[in-house]
Amino acid sequence: MQIYLPIAEVSVNAFLLLGLGGIVGILSGMFGVGGGFLMTPLLFFIGIPPAVAVATEANQIVASSFSGVLAHFKRRTVDLRMGLVLLVGGLIGAALGVQLFTMLREMGQVDLLVKLCYVVFLGIIGGLMFLESLRAIRRSKNPTTVPERKKHGLVHALPFKMKFRTSGLYISVIPPIVVGLFVGILAAIMGVGGGFIMVPAMIYILGMPTKVVIGTSLFQIIFVTAFTTLLHATTNYTVDMALAVLLLIGGVVGAQIGTRIGVKLKAEQLRILLSIMVLAVCAKLALDLLIEPSELYSIGTGGH
Amino acid sequence: MLRLTAALLCLLALPLAAEEVVADLSKDEVAITANFDGSDILIYGAVKRDAPAAAGPMEVIITVSGPKQPVNVRKKDWRFGIWVNASSVEVDEAPSFYAVASSGALREVLSRTEDLRHRISIPRAIRSVGAPSSVVNAADFTDALIRIRTRKNLYQQLDNAVNLFDETLFSTTIDLPANLVEGPYDTRIFLVRDGVVVDEYETVIKVNKVGLERWIYDLAHEQPLIYGLLSLFIAIVAGWGASAVFRYIRF
How far does the signal peptide extend, from start to end residue (chain B) (predicted)? Predict the structure, then answer.
């Protein structure tokens, strides 16, 4: 069944969108990630204009994060205070990101920026995660080697310290604001929640305990992506409600199925699978930039 | 103006046998609904004559043109080891959709001067004047525009697609693809003899989003803040609903 998307002005198969939403939902449920980093490139591949894909995906992430954060509130694994500090940075970052996005859209370089961001960040995160999980698997085979841990880093030396009781931390507010800012910019440019950057940053830079990391990141992501959606809707008019609803239905159902599959797999196996997937998406996008395209020309509308 | 020239030409070329096109469409309105999947439009008509047909072969050319928009054609180049958009040419007027159907091969049916005057063939329907001087081969950009849109079925050159019976009745079907832009679609029918246009008939097909599509599009452009808030509201409700439903199922 074809459906005409009112904002994207393209006609696509509704079942394809439901299916994409479902598959990405399953993966996000399995791995506990938002799935934006997979969905947005997939939307590019099926021919949704990048600007619409990025803005609409932000709207869809609001739904999946909201669904996820409710479960975390119940388990009391959300550090509200840390979430709010991250949010301050996140909102500023999102505003900057949308500005940058609009500017580059006019210059015709937005596709390049979005793709470069994807290649760089997916490459780094995927690579690190792959190596880390390989090491974890090796470690579980001969448990004699104990991993070293650095405590006291830069986060303890900076001023404006604050107590984060849920996380059991007493650190400066500057690093969380900077992390939030950075993820906010990326969220606006890449159409992702930024969980795949936020989660490692919270663990490795801020030193937060793993159990509160996902809930807190989801809490913060809801507000940043909601803000991004509003900014895209009012400045670029690129949020497609029909597209968002279709992706949402598939995604929400898929996430629940994915959670059940995820329970049956081991943590290291999950992480290595996720990293392989991230690297595959990264490789596909990188090849597009490196190999000479068969069509050198492209058409952009506008010229205001 | 065009009509006037056509009428004058009629008088000059064929003072005895004035020929006139009478035509109609199977529908003059296309509604883009949520499940819009393209539309076929039958264009048919006849040639009205006061006197017996003049000598020389008669041909019919039918064009359908979507709203004209300025577009930017960009070219990728190898820079810093990757392929990036490097140069661009702005085409002032490019129809979002253009189909030209003719009863014979267009190149043989129509003379070059008449094509220039009436802007009938695809390259003539596009107007590009503002190529920056830094771009040497501006023609490559318009060629690329035609190539890309032809591949998407947005530009169609349909030779021998007009059925002509007894130099009097004609008909053709134009296939409007699913990815249409809304607006007025100018439809022109040309009667051609010896490569010269002897009569022209113009009408408009209205392509509009209707119902939900119309509502969403208008809201997004006229009340963007409300539209954004509504999108968020739907997202929140869906997210909450999904978690509530699945919690209920689990027990």
Answer: 1-18
